Amino acid sequence: MEFTFTQQLLQQLINGISLGSIYALIALGYTMVYGIIKLINFAHGDIYMVGAYVAFFATTTLKLSFLPALLLAMVVAAIVGVIIERLAYRPLRYAPRIAILITAIGVSLLLEYGGILLVSPQPRTFPAIFQAQVFTFGNIVVNSQQVLILAVALSLMVILTYVVQRTKIGKAMRAVSFDTDAARLMGINVDRVISITFAIGSSLAAAAGMLVGVYYNSIDPLMGIMPGLKAFVAAVLGGIGIIPGAMLGGIILGIIEAMVSGFISSTFRDAAAFAILIIILLFKPSGLLGKNVREKV
Amino acid sequence: MGNNKRVLLSFAACIAVYAVMQSLISLDVIGSFWQLNIVLVCINIILAVSLNLINGFTGQFSIGHAGFMAVGAYVGAVLTVKFQLPFLVAILGGAAAAGFLGFVIGLPTLRLDGDYLAIATLGLGEIIRITILNIPYVGGASGFMGIPRYTTFAWVFFATVFTVFFIRNFINSTHGRACIAVRENQIAAEAMGVDTTKYKVMAFTIGAAFAGVAGALFAHYFYIAHPASFTFMKSFDILTIVVLGGLGSISGSITAAILLTFISAALAGYPEWRMIIYSLLLIILMLYRPQGLFGNRELSLKMFGRLMGGNKRGTTEGN
Fold it and tell me: What is the ipTM of this complex?
């Protein structure tokens, strides 16, 4: 089979979109939390790992099928996210920003090494839930996992957009992120909104964790570090605090990574993500979809 | 004047500490495990104090310090192994390279502030590491091996003393005051005629250069420079020391470096629990004492006097 340049480009585009939709799911949690309490939640990548492990045990030990396992992972991760916020972040709501950032790093380390202690550091093989089907269009290969990832990610994003734009709690979330104090004065229970934000963000990360498990077949307790950082890059790329921005940023980052590993070298994949971060921070810190807010003195 | 006398006294104290430690090491009272940890303490002090200059005194939140350490380690190793230059040249070369990189990187990135700067420095640290990973000349992913062990206790000790004195004097100089002004209120500092970009970049460059010194010492103690030693986890470790000791407190950084290195050494027998205890410590400390052990004050004899005298001021100031 001869691979022409266009075919390889299309192939990498498909790989990039499926990888990117995973980044987008994680980035959504980052961007929502940042939009509301201005915290880079370093532990978010580890919630994604927790989600992957819950899904793993749900499918192996409990023998659940795909959808129930996904729901279980999302619920457990949501609870973990809310507990973390309640115990570690809420007492520091008015502390210096650096203190809460360090706490987030601490929580992240705790989840990683607690994970190693509980489930052993060895990577585990995620069971094949689906018969892997391969669709070929000409020379371009699409497998069923990629279709599944895209379908699940897109439907979750649609649900999230509906929740944020059309429901009362979504309205409250937007209000708190716009102006916390004014929202509190309008009778919005800010603490509850923050908890719900953490719950939603964490469940999306857990879904991403399970999808990665299905896609790459392997999970380990430190799997959350790199995707977590990259998802943050994706969130910044799209404009942090902006929900459609996180989706766009995730997909773009996924595509760029796939292109770099396909055409240059896979060892430079991670560097590419960070280079994008620096470039975007230097030229448009508000992100692709962000508006420039003038700093008032 | 009195100041000169104090400096002389501190130097005398350092020499005395050195003499005691060195004789203990020579007489084999301190075994090799603790020797290793003492060297690590010194390297961590250099890293923490230099990061404190950036984060604590100038208020620029950087979390990519391990990247500069890596540059120092690799440049130093190349100078001794490939060019057969003396160790001092390697240390200075590592410092110069890391400082230069800090300057080049700092110039554009220090326009950012707060979280954006934090995440940009984190990204830069990773880019440095991944770039090193892809240079076969320095061993690539398997690391740079065969580095001679030039680092002795004397080297690290005096490098540490030099770092601490340099940064302390820098902070007490006009430039240092300007850096503190930038931290306290950038707009007000600018209005008073402080060139904020200049001082931010200056602090960043000096901090990076000393991280390079620490890197060179590190590589020449462990025979190897490996990209995996300089991940962002290492940057977090250094940041933890700085925050634990107190942002803007040099003596705090020193105390925290000693404390954390020894806690980490004491927990070495329980590797699975080590990081858990470490992270819990971090969380609990931030919950109950977010300003760090010393806040931004320095440990001094006066402070002891106050504590002993039961003067209320010493305790109320702590809050």
Answer: 0.81
Chain B nearest-CA residue for A233: B119
**Count of CA atoms in the C-beta half-sphere (13 A) of A107:** 27
In a domain, B317, yes or no: no
**Total count of residues recorded for chain A:** 297
Within a domain: B19 = no
Interface test with A, best of B101, B286, B293 (most A CBs within 10 A): B286
Distance CA A71, CA A74 (A): 5
CATH number listed for the domain at residues A5-283: 1.10.3470
How far A290 CA sits from the closest chain B CA (Å)?
14
Could you tell me which of A293, A296, A207, A266 has the C-alpha nearest to residue A23? A207
- Nearest CA among A105, A62, A236 for reference residue B282: A105
How many structural domains does chain B have?
Answer: 1
Task: Please answer whether residues A42 and A228 qualify as being in contact, where contact means their C-beta atoms are separated by less than 8 angstroms.
Answer: yes
Q: Which residues of chain A have pLDDT under 70?
A: 1-3, 292-297
Unique residue bearing structure tokens 């300003």 = B291
How far is residue B277's CA from residue B281's CA, in Å, rounded to a whole number? 6
| pTM for this entry | 0.85
Q: What is the DSSP string of B39-55?
A: HHHHHHHHHHHHHHIII
- Does residue B170 sit within a domain? yes
pLDDT the model gives residue B30: 78
Q: For residues B115 and A30, what is the distance between their CA atoms, to the nearest angstrom? A: 13
State the CB neighbour count (10 A cutoff) for residue B251: 19
pLDDT tens digits, B40-66 = 999 999 999 999 999 989 988 888 899
Domain positions in chain A: 5-283
Instruction: Tell me the residue range of the domain where B219 lies.
Output: 31-231
Task: Collect the ranges in chain B with pLDDT lower than 70.
Answer: 1-2, 300-319
In this structure, is residue B2 part of a structural domain? no
Residues 6+ apart with CB under 8 A from A65: A59, A129
Which residue in A1, A21, A23 sits closest to A232, CA to CA? A23
Q: Which of A112, A269, A281, A284 to mutate to test the interface with B (most CBs of B within 10 A)?
A: A281
Nearest CA in chain A to B133: A267
Q: Considering only CA atoms, which of B176, B199, B173 is closest in space to residue B186?
A: B199
Q: Which residues of chain B does A232 touch, with a Cβ-Cβ cutoff of 8 Å?
A: 119
